[in-house]
Amino acid sequence: MKFGEKPLQRGDKGANVEELQLRLAGFRGTIWDGDFGPGTELQVMTFQKDYMNMKTPTGIVNGDTFAALDQFAQKFSIDFEAIKCPCGVCDGFGQNRFKNKYQAGKSETEKTEAFYRYEYPGIHKAILNSFKAAQFYASQTGYDIPYPTSGYRCWVNNEQKNRQSTNHMGKALDIDFPLKPTEDKQDDCNRCNAVRGLLVEKCGFQIGWSANNMKALEPADIAPTWIHMDVRCYSRKYLDDKYFIKNNQELDGHL
Ligand SMILES: [Zn+2]
């Protein structure tokens, strides 16, 4: 049964529930475990209330909600050219190198995503769908629509730029807003701070990386004039290769 062919509701399990959880990654957000529990129901009700303007959200995904999910996915479709790796060597999303390899000199307890050298095969669906929700909530709140400033950065690009960060090998996206002629850097910082607050409130992000299995934003002292979002706090099973994709077809399934 394809996604959209059968209603989904609390108690359902399986691949279509997982697809739903990923589609709604930026509406509160839960882990994508294929189990439709209270967290998934809250995601659905948040989407119904905020995006569909439903007065009494049902928490049940039926024809109207499936149609709205597709409309939302298409309205905020991703410009993959803008988020490809700029190195000029890889295909835009790394070369799938360094599986199970960590930065040199790390102890067993430091073998975490922050030091994991793997070039994931694309960008994680939860990050891309959260970016869609960020665009929706920003525009709904009266901001311009944010655009991506940095997506995939493979090890070739790291060497070109003399950096060691592993965060942008599929797990992260940086976004920003156009600066108006009348605005200065402080205005830019203020807006990024305000939007980070909005993303915490609406999309279920944390600021910093203290909680497991939660989407993260870099704090303002690291990212003053842009917004960095990532999924590096997730357990490895939620960072399986199958979640990392390279085009809108893979992101939105049957669309
Ligand atoms: Zn590259």
What does this structure look like?
The model has no long low-confidence stretch (mean pLDDT 96). This protein has two domains: 61 residues, Muramoyl-pentapeptide Carboxypeptidase, domain 1; 173 residues, no CATH class. Helix 5 packs across helix 7. It is of the alpha+beta class. Strands 2-3-6-5-4 form a five-stranded mixed beta sheet. Strands 1-7 form a two-stranded antiparallel ribbon. Zinc ion (ZN) binds next to helix 6.
Number of domains: 2
Ligand species: zinc ion
Q: End-to-end distance, in Å?
A: 15 Å
- Strand order, sheet with most strands: 2-3-6-5-4
Q: Indicate the percent of residues in helices.
A: 25-40%
How many distinct beta strands? 7
Write the layout of secondary structure elements.
Layout: H1 15-23, H2 38-50, H3 63-75, H4 80-83, E1 123-124, H5 125-140, E2 147-150, H6 155-161, E3 172-176, H7 185-203, E4 206-207, E5 216-217, E6 227-230, E7 244-245, H8 248-252
Parallel strand pairs: 4-5
Antiparallel strand pairs: 1-7, 2-3, 3-6, 5-6
Helix pairs in contact: 5-7
Bound molecules: zinc ion.
